[in-house]
Amino acid sequence: MDTSELQRLKQRYNIVGNCDALNRALDVAKQVASTDLSVLIVGESGVGKEIIPRLIHDNSPRKHEKYFAINCGSIPEGTIDSELFGHEKGSFTGAIGESEGYFGTANKGTIFLDEVGELPMATQARLLRVLETGEYIRVGGQKIMKTNVRIVAATNVNMHKAISEGRFREDLYYRLNTIPIQMPPLRDRGNDILLLFSLFTMQIAEKYGMSRITLTDEAKAIMLRYKWPGNVRQLKNITEQMSVLSTTRVIDAETLSKFIPQDKESTQLATTTPTGSHSYESEREILYKILYELRGNVSDLRREMTNLRKQIDDNRTLDNFAAAQQVHALQPATFSPYQDVEAEEIRDGVTTSQNEQNESLNLSDIGRQVVEKALERNGGNRKKAAQELGISDRTLYRRIKQYGLDK
Predict the structure, then answer these.
(1) Band of pLDDT at residue 293, cut at 50, 70 and 90
(2) How many CB atoms within 10 Å of residue 116?
(3) Are strands 344-347 and 144-146 parallel, antiparallel or unpaired?
């Protein structure tokens, strides 16, 4: 891509900067736009990765079709499959109608999956199938759906580490990473920092009707030395703070130090105490780890509660069958769907069985017979027997073991 075309591209998407790494990323995006190859954009948070997929879509044969940008990290794990792939009516609580999902709605268009490294493993398997075959199945459905979607993904996660830790599928990574695009961090873009600062001051001055702030040479040197851990997003925030809060329009080193630390290696926005140099980096890391683990624990607890509630309901259903049989045994003989269960008779007001007279049947005995007869009626097929009894396979297996019927 020649210089003039590159400048036109930057003007169209309001991209500021001239560093080689940025120009290379834009050049690759423009070249790959005309194809249907999957693209993976890698870069730290706040570097402007969202510009690339929009550029790719607008310069592709799909530019007149739909474009969706989806933040995978912001969708709850329990609903993300439904959001992406759609669902059938009644497939879960609240599914009052059908949904096509993003992959159905964006057919022939482009989907940008931001923070793709945050996808749950089950969703990754579904996404891999879409990439390989263009096929997917809605949540709660059985029909195979087809879609023709261009996928562009982005992540700020170390994917090789995520793969080694079992948090991301290696095969999916290579499918997404057909064309890799690396977005440079702001600290590596040199004078682009000052160009972006100038752009932001102009935008803020125009928006709020105030005069623009400028930097002294010493302040510019500090800006260039600072690491900018929050990248372009952090630079914009600090520029806004200085524009609104600074009493002077010429920002010198002393004024700048109130908004960013003088230590070029520091990743803090400002010192937190006037004395001492305590850093809260380790505390933040611990807190993030605790919050991450807590989220996982809450998800596990929710699943356990759902399973426990299902087991309780199944046990209640089976016990109700047994109780109904016990009540039936105390009444005059009438037709029952459980006639196969050992017959009983009433003598002198005492319930007796053909095999055991003068002994009342307890719930466990009748429950055992209900399970036995259900298995017999279904030729030993446990799945069918469980469906007949209205309980889960797991509950039936547990009762079979409890009653010693597995021997």
Answers:
(1) low
(2) 27
(3) unpaired
Instruction: Give residue-wise pLDDT tens across range 178-234.
Output: 999 999 999 999 999 999 999 999 999 999 999 999 999 999 999 999 999 999 999
CATH architecture of 192-279: Orthogonal Bundle (1.10)
Residue whose C-alpha is closest to residue 47's, from 206, 235, 179: 235
**Residue 36 gets which letter from DSSP?**
-
Q: Which residue has the tokens 């140099």?
A: 277
Output the pTM of the full model. Answer: 0.63
Measuring CA to CA, which residue among 90, 173, 131 is closest to residue 82?
90
Do the Cβ atoms of 176 and 131 come closer than 8 Å?
yes
Q: What is the DSSP string of 248-273?
A: -SEE-HHHHTTTS-S-TT---SS-SS
Residue 393 · residue 386 · CB < 8 Å: yes
Query: 195: part of which helix (H) or strand (E)?
Result: helix 192-208
pLDDT at 179: 96
Tokens representing 389 are 């009894």
Q: Where are the domains of the chain?
A: 3-184, 192-279, 283-402
| β partners of residue 182 | 42
- Residue 369 and residue 251: Cα distance in Å, rounded? 87
Q: What top-level class would CATH report for the domain 3-184?
A: alpha beta
CB 145 within 8 A of CB 137: yes
Can you tell me which residue has the tokens 């809260």? Answer: 280
